[in-house]
């Protein structure tokens, strides 16, 4: 099953990167959301795929009864989902603020920090 | 404490003194000079304890392991050469500290000045005491850095800042050449200590890398010792307060290059390359320095250029390779330290007492400043090579070394005579002109300098006389061991004041007569040189400015090219690099994944959900308006959640469902608040390259993941968690147990991240639009104006 997941991860990553190279912030934000999913799938696939058997120990047992899905990548992804959501929320509010201050969501027009045509630095000592 | 420990302490003492200097100055005012002068005096006394051993031709070494894994030691080598230097540095250093006490009396930063001065002294002592290459290099660069601080002491003037930066760039840059040269020597021989290197001299000279090592070492020595065409930083360094000029340009900084040449003479010296490069550059520096000295009217600048000239003579002698040349270099070096230090201090005293440094606007000071006048005359006589001063002995020895009846010797001897005659004229222009003749009005009414200001020049001038009178003892204790250490074999210096006739004496007399002639026609000579310089119009000093400006322009252009300030360019660059990193190495190193085997038995519902995910993704890109795109974003997110659910990860699925719902709702809410242009698609000429880069990244990730999953899998960690989550942590859901128990600290960090993000969001939401504009405008001038 891993080859199918590898392909799926590649498609997710392609779309995410294409969106992040846009000049418009809303599109970049969508790219960031998809990038989070792509990376989660990457971690999930590297831990190998197993169908339908969650890593839960049945009642009365000390260890899982048979082979179960790998719990480690799941724990990592769980953390990653939450963090990427906080990140996304922060970026969203930041771009909203940027829009309400600068009146644009086009990154080409956001030139307050690095304006075009700044003069040469002083040539003296 | 053993002698070695004391020596180590002596090397550290100036730095310790530098730490307490500001405090001492705060308590004692300018009289702190008396207390701080004890530092160099103590070092001087400690060093004199070695003089008996050194006079017997012995060598004192010692040290401690510093970086043992690289065989780097903090080790010192005290022989005739380094002892002479250390005595000069500490002895003249003590006088300079006293002189600065008077010169900068009442200056608000006098304590800082003492601190810099002592740091410089410590660096210089460390430099000449170093046995290991790396220690020499570190102290070498430390002298560059501390001299930068000293030259730029008056940092509110642009000229001082420029001079400081110039000295740092030229000498610090030369230090890098030196490092490369020393590393080549180290590689060649496997030896990183000067005391052991001499034995490998034949091997070094025969090596094919000899010339490279020599040129690199000379790059360091010539920049430090201001040889033409790197001479320009030295006169500019006259922007420093006069005590600095007197110290750096008589006994210390600029002599470091000469010291290095002398130290490496037994190893690198004596070859044809050495005997061509050094005399040629030395003679050029000698003549150019002397001509430029005569051209100046500023007392300090005249002395600065004669220093350049003297350094040229020293380099010429070190490289000349005739009998007596090394002895002459040793004698002249000591003599130069004494008379040049005194003359600089005299120039400073005149400046301090009259407020005027221009020699054409000074006169008749002899009655007002008799002690200074006496010290000046004695030093100038030594500099001009008149008996009975030490400079006379040095000059006799110089001519004894240079004259011979072959073409090369005749040319260099003639150049030396002209250079020395010009220096003679410059010396008396500094030491005689301001004192004789009619009294000229000066900005301040002239009167004798205070004790702290005349003590230094007087002591040094008297030393110039005493050393000559007691030449036998001095040769035994100082100059003979020094010459032996330079030459790497026993040498005995014998020259004394006793009259002796011959070609050297004749050349000496010729020099004096020529010098008197130059002195009498000084004004005409000055005008002629000024006209010649104006005709040339360009010099390395202007070249330095042009180079620095070019550097600023270049770095500005490069920065603007790389840091355009446009986010999409940064993004494109980042992802292009990602694509290259993912795709190129597997091809280069033959690590490509094997052709994948796709399973044939995938149930239909799994295929369907994956297809829905892909459809959602494509819809995000193709959607005509933003709202459709956001809804499609939800489709791919929920599909991922279902995939997690199908493949044994229900916890992930639940979290994903929640997060995706929130993300879509918030994004839609925010988006509807903004009044955006209806479409935000990019034109085809942008979308095609972007799509190519994105596809390359996706392909690379797929190949990478295929390769990873084809490798054998280590289940060690997972087995551990499965085995112990019930028995140790008492939880049935292994994923939850990992999160809250085994990796609990990670989760704590995660919660902290969420909290910080929430705080940041809160503050961004609550900021009023007006207040944000003021933050964005961080131009201090505008802020000042708005207040």
TrEMBL record, chain A:
Family assignment from sequence similarity: Belongs to the CPA3 antiporters (TC 2.A.63) subunit C family.
The entry's keywords: Cell membrane, Membrane, Transmembrane, Transmembrane helix
Source species: Rhizobium herbae
Chain segments annotated as coiled-coil in the UniProt record: none
Top-level taxon in the UniProt lineage: Bacteria
Bilayer topology annotation: Multi-pass membrane protein
Chief location category: membrane
Biological classification of the source: Bacteria, Pseudomonadati, Pseudomonadota, Alphaproteobacteria, Hyphomicrobiales
Residue intervals passing through the bilayer: 6-25, 32-51, 71-94
Protein name: Na+/H+ antiporter subunit C
Compartments, as annotated in UniProt: Cell membrane
TrEMBL record, chain B:
Keywords: Antiport, Cell membrane, Ion transport, Membrane, Transmembrane, Transmembrane helix, Transport
MrpA C-terminal/MbhD domain mapped to chain residues: 612-675
InterPro entries, A to Z: CPA3_Na-H_Antiporter_A, MrpA_C/MbhD, MrpA_C/MbhE, ND/Mrp_TM, Nuo/plastoQ_OxRdtase_6_NuoJ, Proton_antipo_N
Domain NADH:quinone oxidoreductase/Mrp antiporter transmembrane: from-to ranges: 130-413
Compartment(s): Cell membrane; Membrane
Topological relation to the membrane, as annotated: Multi-pass membrane protein
MrpA C-terminal/MbhE domain: residues covered: 689-766
Domain NADH-Ubiquinone oxidoreductase (complex I) chain 5 N-terminal residues, every copy: 68-114
Transmembrane portions of the chain: 6-25, 32-54, 74-99, 111-128, 134-153, 165-186, 206-223, 274-294, 301-324, 330-350, 371-390, 410-432, 452-478, 498-520, 569-590, 602-622, 629-647, 653-676, 688-706, 747-765
Protein name: Monovalent cation/H+ antiporter subunit A
Species for this entry: Rhizobium herbae
Lineage: Bacteria, Pseudomonadati, Pseudomonadota, Alphaproteobacteria, Hyphomicrobiales
